[in-house]
Amino acid sequence: MLRVWEGSITDANLVSRGGVHTQPDEDDFDGTAGEAKERKLILAPAQTTLVEDIDDSQTEIKISAAVFDDSNHSYVLVVSGENSEIMQITGAFGITTLTVTRGDSPISASASDSIFSAYTYENIVIQASDESGSDETGWFTYAPDVAGSPGEYGASLNPSNFTDPKTDSYAFWRKVTVPVSVTQKKSDMRHKTYFEPYAYAA
Question: How would you classify the pairing of strands 156-157 and 47-49?
């Protein structure tokens, strides 16, 4: 699973996925002036940290944020120092206490150690999605990050393949330009990410 964060990759900066998480990418605009606003976002594999130490036999682990909510992406990578282990989530998707099957070489890990979605990603596309069907996706444009500033904006972006969930991420900017219009509240616009996932071998 790929996720979007605002500014930097921390649990607090996670952008909402269809209402699953609590932090949407939202803003207020002056629709009488056709206002535009930019925001830096980061695309990266779903990731968070362990809340408690685990030993090499535990099959229930506690994590900081409920980012692993898709049963089609059930493998996670726990990294502790130079050691790592791929585990399979077998129950409790979408909450902060996971039931897992341990890997062939189980490790011990400490609270605050990282846990990642254990996949690589190819053919990635970032674009807007309008769930209302009224096709207001043209309000959104996207630009690659260039040394902290937006590059050229377009309707979509195509990041390079992600080959390592521990290190790969993609910084980009989104611009929302609202048309001159009467006051309204929009809550059906989403960032949409398409990709092809493949199992990661630690």
Answer: unpaired
**pTM for the whole thing?**
0.90
Summarize pLDDT for 5-44 with one digit per residue, the tens. Answer: 998 999 889 886 655 556 677 777 877 878 889 999 999 9
What CA–CA distance (Å, rounded) separates 76 from 70?
A: 12
Give the integer Cα–Cα distance in Å for 2 and 117. 8
**SS3 letters for the chain?**
CEEEEECCCCHHHECCCCCCCCCCCCCCCCCCCCCEEEEEEEEEECEEEECCCECCCCCEEEECCCCCCCCCCCEEEEEECCEEEEEEEEECCCCCEEEEECCCCCCCECCCCEEEECEEEEEEEEEEEECCCCCCHHHEEEEEEECCEECCCECEECCCCECCCCCCCEEEEEEEECCCCCCCCCCCEEEEEEEEEEECCC
Closest CA to 47 of 113, 123, 126, 116: 116
Q: 130-156 b/e with 16+ CB inside 10 Å = b?
A: beeeeeebebbbbbbeeeeebeebeee
